[in-house]
Amino acid sequence: RSILKTPLKQAATSQSVLTEIQPDQPLTTPPKPKDPLPAEPWTPTSNLKMLISAASPEIRSREQRRELSHNTSEVLQAKHCLQEHLLGDEYEKSQPSRKEKSLGLLCHKFLARYPDYPSTAENNYICLDEVAEELNVERRRIYDVVNVLESLHMVSRLAKNRYAWHGRHHLFKTLEALKKAGEKNKYTQQIQLIKKREYEHEFDLNSERNEEMARCFGSNKHSEISFVELPGMEFRAASVNSRKDKSLRVMSQKFVMLFLVSTPQIVSLEVAAKILIGEEQLEDLDKSKFKTKIRRLYDIANVLSSLELIKKVHVTEERGRKPAFKWTGPEVLPNIQDTKLEATCTTCPPPSSESTPSKEQCSKNLFPSRGKNFTRHPSLIKLVKTIENDRRKVQSAPTSPVKISGGIDQNLSAFPSKMAQGPAIAKYQLAGQSKKEMKMQLSGSALECNVSLPEAVPKVEPPLSAAPSQLPALPQPLGVCPPCHSAVSPVILPHPPAGVPYAIYLHPSPAHTVTTYSPSFMLQPLPCANVTGIQSMNSKVLNKIPTEEGDNQMAPDDPSKSLTADEKPPIKSETSSQRCLKRSQALQDNNLIKRCRSDEESLDTALTFFPSGYLIPLTQYTHGNEAAFPNKEKAGICSLQHPSYSPPIAGVIPVTASELKAVNIPTFHLTPLNIMLSPTSVAAAPVLSNPCLSSSSTRAAQKPSSSVLNFTLQHVGLIPAGVQVSANPFLQHMPLSSQPEHGNCSSENMNVQEEKVRKYAFANNILQKPKPRIHAGFFSFPLNDNVFLSSLQPSVPKEPQEPQTVTENFFRTPGGPNTVSSLSATSDGTDRTSPGTLYIPQRKLEVSED
DNA sequence: TGATCCCGCCAACGT
DNA sequence: ACGTTGGCGGGATCA
Q: 3-state DSSP call for residue A537?
């Protein structure tokens, strides 16, 4: 058996395969430099896959062989001709292009040989020799592929030369495990550190972060991960495989972990490489080592890309384009929530059998597309228009789907996940359509309230140095962090006017929400200016905020500036609280909507205003009071419920992101406030609206009597409108019923209004089912679409224009699941869950796809 | 150019 | 010893 590969054969094979599968693919053309090879020759990958899969393995290989031999002889002759008549270089050119030999392609071919979900009955053994031969590649290359697949437990080694194919059966579980491992390994923090370091380096800021770095990474050394295995999936041939596994396998897993733990699920090669190296040798980050790492990462990335787990993108920042990859695989939620969610979702099969798409599938079923094509067009104006249209639709025909461009998706969404391959094709096709629009700007991760990093608020410095974690076992990203990401940190504020205390539920950042620190994503407390602006929500504020936003956006260009902002002392809590109150008052007599509408500029605001939380009156709904809260802002949803209380619905004050920015930090200093968690406290219905579109809401606000209900309902209706979602659909996990006190809220406890809201919501697919539980958790929204773009990535089989309801969005915010769980307001006001940290995007991060 | 990453040498390992 | 694995990095290609 020889590995000797005849270039000839290779050419024949790759071409025959391509020809056979994709007759119209340019790939079949001889590799001439001029030939316009499609940027993504494998875009129709799924096509290939499906077609190949359609045939049984036997037929497949038979045909392959036939093709092979057939073409071989043909090409053989051609080769001779070429050799004899062409000049050396000309002959060279006739050779298969590099692309045709790429690892990615190889991987595709490899994957095409086996079903995603093989039945146990099938013969799923893989003989490397055979594969290598059939695919006409040297064995060495097969190893590259197999190693990565192995890291995902898609294959497992049985013995020498022999592997077992598992397909994606274990994929999801593996990812969960990896995520856990990644959190344990504090990758989130490492990423932040690295980015931060970069940043400081870049601007020559004294960077004696080394110690910090060392500590961070150092603490890992002990808990260093080798290879993450799944129970029952251990290396059977472990003994055979004892080679130091710092290998591709492990590297691959770590790479994946990085995606799973970082909030914008985008990881640049550079960072990844540094982290992977860092773990081994902190210091000598010599160039060559780095390069090598990068090379390996490319190898891995190619395979992962073939698996459609990641996708290549480019992150553009000041320093230029950096290659990076974006996670496009299934969203992996923290286990607890996950489990609960699954338990709740009866319409979907457990992920174990449907690993990849199950959740997405689930959400699709639960939330039939409404036909809204969420674009992420850069034009804000367009955006708003879209939103308005959407809203109209929703209001007029809440349940009737209006297909704009997602027809295929809709159909597909009804397909069982088994059909994943089918949709995949559509996905690609549609993806192509919207490709141009895929250019997105990530102006940071928007507002993120990281409850787990309180110390980080005032200082740019991550808390890492302050408290090197000794708790490797903690699932939390930071050992330092209190296990608070699972709880919302309510802050209750007295509401002077009505004498009603309000709780501000901020969106705590779960493990994976930790913002990556970097020049792109600056961790920084809100500038005072924001707070000021908030103190009165009037037109002035509106006008001002955009400006501030602008400032923030400028920050990227001016590091020193952002730093300065960082240095700004936190606002006095007292002041802020007061302002909060004022604000709520101000809301009463404001009709910002008009301004919003009339003011083109406010469009910007629209985006940045995405709510992150609500001010929730803690008392029962009171007439006249709630009315005061015009919903001119799009609010984030905040359903809140104390475990032991049955919360009737209450008024909700939408808090815009920008407001939160201002309020947030100070809020956490409001410890002196009285916490009055009334048993009847709160239940906020999901609300999300676009300030510019809430005209009707405004009207409602004018009618005190029905204010709350109207407010809620309207916001509910608005939700879809207010959400700017990337063209990519994403997973919509519904942490809704993750509450332990699940049953606490008996329908009897629901007052009429809530019931109404619930029904309405349900009618709009906002609720999973008529379950009396809209208050089961807290949901917040990212500030703008960027967040969605960056962190709410589609799960594997992603349909480009997948319509989605807003519900899906807020059920799946970055903070999502974690946020919902154990929502327990501490009774003493000094929430243990700790204050939140705002991660405010400081720089523009542009992610473009190729 | 810089980004990608193919290719295959050769050492560690297993049998 | 010999075959299997797979780390590694030179240098070719691509964009």
A: coil
| The three-state (H, E, C) secondary structure of A625-673, written as one string | CHHHCCCCCCCCCCCCCCCCCCCCCCCCEEECHHHHHHHHHHHHCCCCC
- Distance, CA of A505 to CA of A591 (rounded, Å): 24
**For residues A49 and A112, is the Cβ–Cβ distance under 8 A?**
yes
**What is the tens place of the pLDDT at every residue in A83-138?**
444 444 444 445 678 888 899 899 988 999 898 898 877 778 888 888 898 888 89
Instruction: Express each pLDDT in A708-728 by its tens digit.
Output: 333 333 343 333 332 232 323
Pairing of strands A320-327, A440-442: unpaired
Contact present, A121 and A199 (Cβ < 8 Å): no
Collapsing DSSP to helix, strand or coil, A724 comes out as: coil
Q: Angle at the Cα of A384 (from A393 to A330), degrees rounded to 5? A: 80
CA–C1' nearest nucleotide, residue A143: C6
**End-to-end Cα distance, chain A:** 40
Token digits for A820? 């919902």
Nearest CA among A360, A432, A437, A385 for reference residue A789? A437
Task: Summarize pLDDT for A351-400 with one digit per residue, the tens.
Answer: 333 333 333 333 322 222 222 222 232 333 333 333 333 333 333 322 22
Mean pLDDT of chain A: 44
* Residues 6+ positions from A750 with CB-CB distance below 8 Å: A648, A649, A758, A772
Nearest to A448 by CA among A840, A754, A46, A23: A840
Q: How many residues does chain A have?
A: 850
Closest CA to C4 C1' — which residue? A160
Q: Which residue has the tokens 């090879």?
A: A37
Fold observed for domain A103-200+244-327: Arc Repressor Mutant, subunit A (1.10.10)
Instruction: Report the nucleotide nearest the CA of residue A106, measured to C1'.
Output: B6
Nearest nucleotide to A160, CA against C1' atoms? C4
Q: Is A506 helix (H, G, I), strand (E, B) or coil?
A: strand
By CB neighbour count within 10 A (0-12 exposed, 13-18 middle, 19+ buried), where does A602 fall?
Answer: buried
Task: Give A32: exposed, middle or buried? Use CB within 10 Å, 0-12, 13-18, 19+.
Answer: exposed
Residue of A538, A620, A512 lying closest to A839 (CA atoms) = A512
CA distances (Å), A367 to each of A498, A727, A808, in order?
38, 17, 7
CA of A235 to C1' of C14 (A): 38
In the structure, how far is the CA atom of residue A241 from the C1' atom of nucleotide C7, in angstroms?
Answer: 14
Question: Which nucleotides on chain C have any atom < 7 A from a protein Cβ?
Answer: 4-11, 13-15
- Segment A498-522 shows an average pLDDT of 29
CA angle A377, A383, A389 (to 5 degrees): 130
List the beta strands (DSSP E) in A396-474: 440-442, 448-449
CA A228 to chain centre: 23
Task: Enumerate the domain spans of chain A.
Answer: 103-200+244-327
Find the radius of gyration of the CA atoms of chain A.
27
CA/C1' separation A160–C3 (Å): 10
What DSSP element (H or E) covers A129? Answer: helix A128-135
The pair of structure tokens assigned to A725 is: 């979602």
User: Burial, A671: exposed, middle or buried (Cβ in 10 Å; 0-12, 13-18, 19+)?
Assistant: middle
Q: Cα angle vertex A396, ends A394, A400, to 5°? A: 65
DSSP 8-state assignment for residue A601: T
CA A319, C1' B10: Å apart?
Answer: 39
Residues lining strand B at under 7 Å (Cβ) are A 5, 98, 101-104, 137-138, 140-141, 159-160, 237, 239-244, 269, 291, 294-295, 298-299, 301-302, 312, 314, 321-323
Residue recorded with tokens 């809201």: A757
* Residue at minimum CA to C1' distance from nucleotide C8: A292
